[in-house]
Write a structure and sequence with these properties.
The relative contact order is 0.16. The strands form two sheets. Strands 3-2-1-4-5-6-7 form a seven-stranded mixed beta sheet, with helices on one face. A two-stranded antiparallel sheet has the order 8-9. It is an alpha/beta fold and 208 residues long. It is globular, with a radius of gyration of 16 Å.
């Protein structure tokens, strides 16, 4: 069983998609070991509790320095000895110590087709605002491995979503979740858990 720790800052809609996929066996051979949030009032922690998953809050406000917070976050993650860390809307830049220790064992879901609309400042609704302002016709979501940069790690899965006339950032955000994020994030976790990820010349592919 692949032990998975999910890091999330907000409501946890992607977390719920993971939980549902485990229950329906779309994700196999996975144990959801913990949910860790940097926000004590994150609804994701409620979702974890309702589904019998340990929930932990590591808040930046509880520590005098950024370094102390990062060390506490790493200790919290380490305490569950995860095989895979999933960032599901976690609005914290991970410390280098963590990305190095868990190299190729951390994945993130980003609400655009990387390398478009990613990097510093591109998160949440901001991504969809920029997509619509630019006037592109296709957006989507990307699952990628996490390295020391922001949205710069190797891409694992992508799924496109069409822009529709009259889309608002909020409408587009919801459709990207439903048509892409909630599909490819569980698929990526299942692929990793069941040996379906293959690396070829530094690029990663999921076998059907």
């Amino acid at each position: 069983m692949l032990k998975v720790v999910v890091l999330v800052s907000g409501g946890g809609t992607n977390l719920q998609a993971i939980i549902d996929a485990v229950k329906s066996e779309q994700i196999r051979n996975v144990e959801l070991s913990a949910v860790i949030s940097n926000k004590k009032d994150a609804y994701a922690l409620t979702r974890a509790s309702e589904n019998g998953i340990p929930g932990v809050c590591v808040s930046r406000k509880a520590y005098e320095t950024r370094e102390a917070f990062e060390e506490a976050l790493l200790q919290a993650v380490d305490s569950f000895t995860p095989d895979l860390i999933v960032l599901a809307g976690f609005l914290v830049i991970l410390p280098a110590k963590m990305t190095e220790k868990y190299s190729h064992r951390i994945i993130n879901i980003h609400p655009s087709l990387i390398p478009s609309f990613c990097g510093d400042g591109f998160y949440g609704l901001h991504v969809h605002e920029k997509v619509l302002a630019r006037g592109v016709k296709v957006t989507g979501a990307t699952v990628h491995f996490v390295d020391s940069g922001t949205d710069t790690g190797p891409i694992l899965l992508q799924k496109a979503v069409s822009i529709k006339p009259g889309d608002t950032p909020e409408v587009l955000q919801r459709r990207v979740m439903e048509e892409a994020e909630w599909i490819i994030l569980p698929k990526a976790i299942d692929a990793i858990a069941n040996g379906k990820v293959k690396e070829v010349d530094g690029s990663f592919f999921v076998e059907d």
